[in-house]
């Protein structure tokens, strides 16, 4: 299912929310309608939470079905609210806005190429997938440049054909380009998705929605 929405009046859903195949996150101050629509679109329970005391949860958290990576500033009481079966880790790194700097599905992950090798290994342990330090379309904040699920990866419009082939092979799903929110190329900031659905910024056009739907296999 695909739903259009806003979080606190903003169409930049991916800044505020995060999602995996099993869980979605939304800031604790959002309207109940947003929580309901997000859960319906993705077919998963929604955890309302602050991270590091902030509402920009999507920028600070990266997750897949195996684990959750949070900014190093996440607090103990926030971490304690996550399901116990998930591996949880804090990104002790200068580039520690995990949601902006990590792109992951249940098969693989890219991370900002500026991170250390030890951070790559840490992410591999927490997320349970192979990790590569890689930019996409020249953008090092790969989590904001793309959206990845277990059915597809949708990337910044400047992503080259060679990059799309590499991404598809590494993440084990098709990869395409798109924009959202009426031409915004930083699409990871504009939506959250899993293999069941997507919650997308309300400014997105029908053409953009169609491209996202095709790219993520949401038929």
TL;DR of this structure?
The chain has 219 residues and is of the alpha/beta class. Helices cover 29% and strands 26% of the residues. The longest helix has 11 residues.
Q: Give a short account of the largest sheet.
A: 3 strands, mixed
- What structural category arises from helix and sheet content? alpha/beta
According to CATH, the homologous superfamily is: L-arginine/glycine Amidinotransferase, Chain A
Rg measurement, Å: 15 Å
Number of helices: 9
Structural features, described:
The protein is of the alpha/beta class and 219 residues long. It has a single domain, classed as L-arginine/glycine Amidinotransferase, Chain A (5-stranded Propeller). The protein has nine helices and 15 strands. It has helices at residues 13-16, 32-42, 57-60, 76-79, 98-101, 117-127, 142-145, 161-171, 206-215; strands at residues 2-5, 18-19, 24-27, 46-49, 61-63, 67-71, 87-91, 102-104, 108-111, 130-133, 146-148, 153-155, 175-177, 191-194, 197-201. The strands form five sheets. A three-stranded mixed beta sheet has the order 1-15-14. Strands 2-3-4 form a three-stranded mixed beta sheet. Strand 11 and strand 12 form a beta hairpin. It is globular and about 45 Å long. The model has no long low-confidence stretch (mean pLDDT 97).
List the defining traits of the structure above.
globular; 3-stranded mixed beta sheet; alpha/beta; L-arginine/glycine Amidinotransferase, Chain A; 219 residues
């Amino acid at each position: 299912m695909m739903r259009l929405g806003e979080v606190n009046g903003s169409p930049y859903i991916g800044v505020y929310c995060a999602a995996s195949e099993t869980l979605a996150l939304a800031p604790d101050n959002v309207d109940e309608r947003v929580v309901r629509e997000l859960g319906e679109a993705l077919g998963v329970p929604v955890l309302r939470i602050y991270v590091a005391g902030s509402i920009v949860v999507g920028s600070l958290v990266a997750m897949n079905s195996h684990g959750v990576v949070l900014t190093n500033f996440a607090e103990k009481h926030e971490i304690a609210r996550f399901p116990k079966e998930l591996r949880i880790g804090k990104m002790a790194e200068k580039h520690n806005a995990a949601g902006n700097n990590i792109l992951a599905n249940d098969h693989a992950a890219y991370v900002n190429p500026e991170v250390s090798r030890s951070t790559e290994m840490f992410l591999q342990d927490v997320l349970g997938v192979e990790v590569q330090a890689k930019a996409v379309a020249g953008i090092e904040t790969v989590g904001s440049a793309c959206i990845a699920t277990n059915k597809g990866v949708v990337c910044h419009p400047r992503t080259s054909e060679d990059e799309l082939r590499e991404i598809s092979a590494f993440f084990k799903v098709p990869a395409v380009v798109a924009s959202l929110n009426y031409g915004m190329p930083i699409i990871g900031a504009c939506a959250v998705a899993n293999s069941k659905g997507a919650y997308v910024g309300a400014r997105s056009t029908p053409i953009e929605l169609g491209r996202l739907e095709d790219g993520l296999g949401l038929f």
